[in-house]
């Protein structure tokens, strides 16, 4: 009852703020829409449709059989989790959450496994970190790559530690244990794919239509969350205490806007602290990304509050890792990535660009790079499968 009253009061305050400041609310919603259209929509659409098609035609089950040795050893998760990890790491927010929810609803993972898989796969898009932040916001592609390395490392480290030191339930509902299937991993994969395809039974046209329709519906919901987060940031800015960095509010609520503000910040420690703040914001993801994940996992038994705690831990790890490995990471990536123009002008002693406004000219749209994302997903999946085959006892015996 108390929670309902609090939410009702907050809703009334939000509506009143929008009524009293309609122009700022409108501009903020356009800002969220710009980010969604240029970055999120092209980055997510192919992957959301792809996971639905892969489930319909049994590809998820086949790849799951191939990845079983690797994922069970490293993360104590079923093989299908490896595919979700690849989708989340290439598609970005909230692709990992959607894929995790799909596996949970189809009975391939338990709620506990889903909880750990969600924390591992709910990460930002690599092209957003490399192109938008590295090349666009900071004008230093090497820094974008260093930030991406810190974000991914924090997710891996947290998941590995959780798998080693926290007791987990290894049972898997609705699945026959793949280890009981006779023959090689390839035969197991073929058998799993055929069985899943027979269970689904939809034609290619029907499966494709369902996948596209569901993906667009989910993307519209994601866009709504992002616009809502942008409006909240703009309306709450005047009430922020001056002692706090101005990028803190936007970073807590919406990661895309927060990273722009952190990139434009002035820190006593210089650029390494900008990068560390951006890595922490990206690993946290923002309340908007958490709400997107919450919408995806609704009814699956996976806890959003536990995800929030995991994201806070990963954010702290990413901040520390970025500062600790700043020199070797930037030196390494500077050798393989081209240099660019100077970073964004720093404008405010508290650390934010004016109103943290993401200008369209500062964004690298991801529409032309959709094929690159798909190739990256294929490369990551193939690498995981190769590592899993090497880790398989049957493969080593031969």
TrEMBL record:
<feature type="transmembrane region" description="Helical">
    <location>
        <begin position="44"/>
        <end position="67"/>
    </location>
</feature>
<feature type="transmembrane region" description="Helical">
    <location>
        <begin position="275"/>
        <end position="297"/>
    </location>
</feature>
<dbReference type="Pfam" id="PF07670">
    <property type="entry name" value="Gate"/>
</dbReference>
<keyword id="KW-0472">Membrane</keyword>
<feature type="transmembrane region" description="Helical">
    <location>
        <begin position="372"/>
        <end position="391"/>
    </location>
</feature>
<protein>
    <submittedName>
        <fullName>Nucleoside recognition protein</fullName>
    </submittedName>
</protein>
<keyword id="KW-0812">Transmembrane</keyword>
<feature type="transmembrane region" description="Helical">
    <location>
        <begin position="309"/>
        <end position="326"/>
    </location>
</feature>
<dbReference type="InterPro" id="IPR011642">
    <property type="entry name" value="Gate_dom"/>
</dbReference>
<keyword id="KW-1133">Transmembrane helix</keyword>
<feature type="transmembrane region" description="Helical">
    <location>
        <begin position="143"/>
        <end position="163"/>
    </location>
</feature>
<feature type="transmembrane region" description="Helical">
    <location>
        <begin position="117"/>
        <end position="137"/>
    </location>
</feature>
<feature type="domain" description="Nucleoside transporter/FeoB GTPase Gate">
    <location>
        <begin position="40"/>
        <end position="121"/>
    </location>
</feature>
<feature type="transmembrane region" description="Helical">
    <location>
        <begin position="216"/>
        <end position="236"/>
    </location>
</feature>
